[in-house]
Amino acid sequence: MKKTFIIIAAVFAALACLSFTIKAYHDPETVILGSWKEVHWEYDRVYHSAHIDRAISSDAREVKEMSATDLGIIDAESWVFNPDGSLILSSHHIKKQASWKIKGRGNILMITYDNNRVERYNIARLTKGKLELNFDTDANIRGIAKVSCVKI
Question: Which residues form the signal peptide (predicted)?
Answer without folding.
Answer: 1-24
